[in-house]
Design brief:
The protein has twelve helices and 19 strands. The chain is elongated, with a radius of gyration of 28 Å. The protein has two domains: 227 residues, Spore Coat Polysaccharide Biosynthesis Protein SpsA, Chain A (Alpha-Beta Complex); 163 residues, 60s Ribosomal Protein L30, Chain: A (2-Layer Sandwich), CATH 3.30.1330. The protein is 29% helix and 28% strand. Bound molecules: magnesium ion (MG). Magnesium ion binds next to strand 13.
Length: 404
């Protein structure tokens, strides 16, 4: 084919999530447990979806875990199939489930490796230009000892580490060749009735045993496999974080009534504030500040004023929703600062109650909170006592994908 006609190869990613992961502890298989608020499986699915060279992401889950997988991947453009009893069977079934997409290449990834640096995916795909298989790996640097004797707790000898690598995923392959290798391997073992004793441990080894070259490319320590209970804390240390701030501003006019809602507290006043909801400017400004830091639009997009559900709604639910979105993004709220702008009512006597209420609404997200009040020296609409304004600043700590 002339070079001008060459097309960019299509790449599918197959994520293996059919294991039970009992060593990591807990009742839930580890791929569904949360790392910084997000199921382990979702982290790598998002990383693969984000990569511009990956055209399709498919997940194989255990037959009984389909709903768990669907919940963990909610909202993502990912298909879910059922895996098999062993890792190899899951790969073989997953490859078949990708048949209709006929990708040129496939990346096989382990759901227990949540952090997937984009540069590592680049290296695996780059190596596939030169070999039909590619495996990211880290050179063994610790000296190796063979244990034995009583309970295997005594050193019996040394194992040379030269030429030894720790294999990681995603491993990349020519799709058709990997399919053929898995089918042939399955056929051979099926005929020998040796289903349980399938020899190869991963795809790179099975592919190599089938006679294909597998290139080693540099792996990444951050792509560690979560195996033991302590690994959740360890992998969390590799998460890149960024502190992000957002601003909020809101105004509501005075109308009839005998109280105003401010920061979730009803304050007796000669007039009320007019709005579709309870017109709590403090909570609205703070909700917008958090949404702003998240890059999640504004309060009107999440709770449209035209929607009758939010008529006279208590605004604490708006703020709680914003806090929930922060958790779903794997982040947390570090700090909130609210300024109420009015001549009346006086805020000072209610400040402590408002701060306590904000803490209640934000619950376990409760960050450092500050509440201020000011007048406008009689100037402008606030000075003419036509309404109340509020400003808010929120600072969040969020996973920073650009740094991974
Ligand atoms: Mg408002």
């Amino acid at each position: 084919m002339p070079a001008a006609m060459a097309t960019v190869p299509t790449t599918a990613a197959l994520i293996l999530a059919a294991g039970r992961g009992v060593r990591a502890g807990g009742d839930l298989a580890k791929q569904y447990r949360r790392l910084a608020g997000k199921p382990l499986l979702r982290w790598s699915a998002e990383a693969l979806l984000r990569h511009p060279a990956v055209h399709k992401v498919h997940v194989v889950a255990a037959a009984g875990d389909r709903e768990l997988a669907a919940a963990a991947l909610a909202g993502l453009d990912v298909s879910i199939g059922v895996g098999g009893a062993s890792r190899q069977q899951s790969v073989r079934l997953g490859l078949r489930q990708l048949e209709a997409h006929a990708p040129d290449r496939v990346l096989v990834h382990d759901a227990a490796r949540p952090l997937l640096p984009a540069a590592m995916i680049d290296r695996v795909l780059g190596a596939l230009d030169e070999a039909p298989g590619a495996c990211p790996a880290l050179a063994v640097v610790d000296s190796l000892r063979r244990g034995g004797g009583y309970g295997g707790e005594y050193i019996e000898g040394e194992v040379p580490r030269e030429g030894l690598w720790r294999a990681q995923t995603p491993q990349g392959f020519d799709y058709a060749l990997l399919c053929a290798a898995h089918e042939a391997h399955h056929e051979a073992h099926h005929e020998a009735h040796a289903r349980v004793a399938e020899g190869a441990t991963d795809d790179a080894e099975l592919f190599r045993a089938a006679g294909h070259a597998v290139r080693i490319v540099a792996g990444d320590e951050r792509a560690m496999k979560v195996t033991n209970p302590g690994d959740f804390d360890l992998v969390a240390r590799f998460l890149p974080w960024a502190n992000v701030s957002g601003l909020g501003f809101d105004v509501h006019r005075f109308g009839d009534g005998g109280h105003v809602w401010l920061c979730g507290v009803a304050i007796p006043h000669a007039r009320g504030l007019v709005g579709h909801s309870d017109a709590d400017v403090g909570l609205h400004a703070l909700t917008d500040a958090i949404l702003g830091a998240l890059g999640a639009g504004d309060i009107g997009q999440h709770f449209p004023p035209a929607d009758p559900r939010w008529k006279d709604a208590s605004s604490d639910r708006f703020l709680a929703h914003a806090a929930q979105l922060v958790e779903e993004a794997g982040g947390r709220i570090l700090h909130c600062d609210v300024t109420l702008i009015c001549e009346a009512p006086r805020i000072g006597p209610h400040r402590a109650a408002m701060l306590a209420r904000l803490g209640d609404i934000l619950g376990r997200h409760a960050p450092r909170l500050n509440l201020k009040a000011t007048t406008t020296e009689g100037l402008g609409f606030a000075g003419r006592r036509e309404g109340i304004a509020a400003q808010a600043l929120a600072t969040l700590r969020l996973p920073d994908w650009s740094a991974l």
